[in-house]
Amino acid sequence: MQEMLLLLAVSYIIGSIPTALIVGRYGYGVDIRQMGSGNLGGTNTFRTLGIKAGLIVTIVDLLKGTLAAALPMLAGLDLHPMLAGLPAIIGHCYPIFAGFRGGKAVATSAGVLLLINPLMIISGLVIFAATLYLSKYVSLSSILAGVWVHLFTILFLAEDRLLLLVTFLLCLFVLYRHRTNIERIVNQTESKITWM
């Protein structure tokens, strides 16, 4: 039990590493929390610091989730990767190292699911990219990719009841974290990307 609790704590700490804050502060001399939406995620980094910084933040945030999900395997513990990854997702949204004000956990969630089923994430990335190309809305692309992940689980992995439950909850969480974006999309005031 102690090993399990330690693993979950390590997962949360991994998720709490504020990649966007680190890249902004040490790579560009700025506090990204004072820029754009103030969000510590890939989207705000792309918008405020550019493609290079955005890619670094997105990839590292994704790998945080993959590493956290892999902890049981690395530690030789019998724990579903999804359960191991959940604290990292929470840590990304509410990081202890950044005043509990983080990102929306799309990349970190994708990283967790990448370890569980790479095809789920590859197909989700295709949906994300296609939606982004057509709409220029990163938020809408993230939402549709999140919904697809749950649909993919229903269609192909329904026997994994835990994964089914967690992807449903993650889908709801993505919608909740993007609620202001949804409102702006409806009102046609959501920012569109200009680099595609």
Number of helices: 10
Q: Please provide the count of β strands.
A: 0
Quote the distance from N terminus to C terminus. Answer: 49 Å
Global structural class: mainly alpha
Instruction: Tell me the domain tally.
Output: 1
Q: Could you state the order of secondary-structure elements as H and E?
A: HHHHHHHHHH
Outline the low-pLDDT stretches: none
Mean pLDDT, as a whole number? 93
General description of the model:
- The protein has helices at 2-16, 19-28, 42-49, 51-75, 81-93, 106-116, 118-135, 138-156, 161-177, 179-186.
- With 196 residues, the chain is mainly α.
- It has one domain (2-186).
- Helix 1 (2-16) packs across helix 5.
- It is globular and about 45 Å long.
Task: Please supply descriptive tags for the structure shown above.
196 residues, 73% helix
What's the structural blueprint in terms of helices and strands?
Blueprint: H1 2-16, H2 19-28, H3 42-49, H4 51-75, H5 81-93, H6 106-116, H7 118-135, H8 138-156, H9 161-177, H10 179-186
Quickly describe the structure.
With 196 residues, this protein is mainly alpha-helical.
